[in-house]
């Protein structure tokens, strides 16, 4: 149906695209030919919309709301398109005469609310019925045979064909439309009544169930009250019988009858008491079922409405932010391209001016050389005139003429020189203007870059107080890398600032350094805030203060770079101090286990494996000592129980020792097959995470063995609990599974050592299960079981003890619930720690979403982290149960 609706809407869009909206196309024959198919489209769309709404309401009543999210999104898109199509078609005169187009509501139906189906109104498309055209030929007036009375009929037919039918047919059409609308209203009312009846039937069913439960509860209360009354009557009869027994010296037969009645009464009382207990338990079960049903119904409705509302809000906000970011990016890219083109144009103009200036200087030098030549010629003429003064007396007129010509030439040369000097001054003034313009443009570029950098830094600083940023986290290693890069960019910023002050006509170095610094500093600030979400309170506060100080100084620097008067006083070097503080805090927050040098990992593996073997040997020796002491200090049943527990512990230690030996052999095989030409230390250093996993697993095995021996010692000495041995067995099983998993990571799956290791793991699980079984059987044999003695207790005392026992049961249930909550929190914190230690050090992670409360990885010297086991059955196919491998 959705595909059918899409096809209909695409057809309408293609028709509207071909129309010329500048003219009234609906009044033209060509436009009406294109619009004619849309009548059938309008009819089909109205029916498709109605059936789609009803079908979606049916689906929402049967399926979860999240499953139908895609259907709702697609329906909303089609709803808006269909509403625009109906609105656009209803504005055209062509459709107003032929069809009545329905109007859709302003907003789509809310499918998450079942009652919204009653608000839905089926869109009705009404097409006026056209009067049937008379297909018979026009009646001809026969003058010869037709009577004169036929003329009015012919005239009436002609009038009807020319001016249309009379108003009576239009009224009939309107009546038909009214009747059809009334029928639609009746259908809608019937559907509404049907929906209301279904809702009332469902409510009546629920009320009937509630009334049945209340009636059953009232009946049980009545039976309970009746049982209490019977108990009182029986107690009264028992008192009377005892009085008769005291007076029973007179009749032995009455005494036997009274004893028989008393025994029957006691049996009836015990049966009534059992019935009373069953009624109380049944009553409590029914009350809990009723409350759970009501609570689940309310919570389900609220959660569905809340989830739908939150999803719509998030989708709208995400789309809005995406559009704004795209618009800003396009504007910035256009502005950058425009500035580049203007800079290239200005550079071309400057080159042209410099070329013209060089030509002017060349022409001035030519004139100067010419003037020098004229001066030399004048000197030659003067010397010649003095030498030939006698000869020139005759030719004085000629000499005067030459002098006049020479003076004219001098005047002309002086005028030309003055003009050239004026042109030269004008060119110099133009060059100074261009130089000043270039300086202004360079400073404008610096100021624009500073403004953009200030916006980036302000955005980063604002994220520190943004509630949505509280769930963003980052690792200290990544923060250190970002802070170091930002610290290195400060030197480039200082160099660019100094170059710009020395040569203001070139600001490229300052712009590039400022751009790089703004992005790196913002990245460091954001990652600092994200890292503080995982850090303890005091370091997190100091890290946030350092990030804010860095942002404040960076904003102060960008503000100084925007003003020409204070630009020389800017000091980019002051940014080093807050960045160094962030770097130092990030290094302090790095996991301490990463401080171990990789060269020491190989020696540490051998050391830990040897220490584990020594711990197991010591545990076996201590168990033998404890067995000897138990034989001297105890006897009988206690000696039998202690020997059985210690023997099972000895078997478990032997299995663990064999497992450690096999794991050491497999480890050597892995190192020999994987190191190649490298040394053993280089192999361990190359696979540092795997090496740390082996170290953690071996420490866990040794620690578990020591704890088992201490728990067994306390149990033998009657200062500990049997449950400690069971928990220690679970820990040992988990630790050995961790060691098997760590060894299995790099082992060949066809390796015989690996097969033996898995067999040893299964043997450890079996021995651990044997220890648990021995402990439980010994505990059952030693602990005394109190037998309940009800002799000598009256009804009131029994009722009192019953109430006290119920109070004790409630207290123990509350304590059990609290301990379960505490156990859940401990396991949650354990998994957080286990997740923290598994972070690789070679690749610092980008900021990720993680719960606040994740802490740092514990150092290698601490107790290894092993996930607790909840399943008491310690069996597995290859020894790798639900235990979590912390270090890998």
TrEMBL record:
Keywords: Actin-binding, Coiled coil, Cytoplasm, Cytoplasmic vesicle, Endocytosis, Membrane
Regions annotated as coiled coil: 171-275, 793-829
Domain I/LWEQ: 593-834
Classification via InterPro entries: ANTH_dom (IPR011417), HIP1_clath-bd (IPR032422), I/LWEQ_dom_sf (IPR035964), ILWEQ_dom (IPR002558), Sla2_fam (IPR030224)
Predominant location category: membrane
A biological process from GO: positive regulation of transport
Signal peptide: none
GO CC, alphabetical: clathrin-coated vesicle membrane; cortical actin cytoskeleton
Composition skew (Basic and acidic residues), residue ranges: 412-430
Keyword Nuclease: no
Entry keyword Cytoplasm: yes
Subcellular location: Cytoplasmic vesicle, Clathrin-coated vesicle membrane
GO molecular function: actin filament binding; clathrin adaptor activity; clathrin light chain binding; phosphatidylinositol-3,4-bisphosphate binding; phosphatidylinositol-3,5-bisphosphate binding
Segments of this protein annotated with the region Disordered: 406-432, 835-888
Pfam family, any one: ANTH
PANTHER family referenced in this protein's UniProt entry, alphabetically: HUNTINGTIN INTERACTING PROTEIN 1, HUNTINGTIN-INTERACTING PROTEIN 1-RELATED PROTEIN
The protein, known as: Huntingtin-interacting protein 1-related protein isoform X3
Source organism: Heterocephalus glaber
Protein encoded by which gene: Hip1r
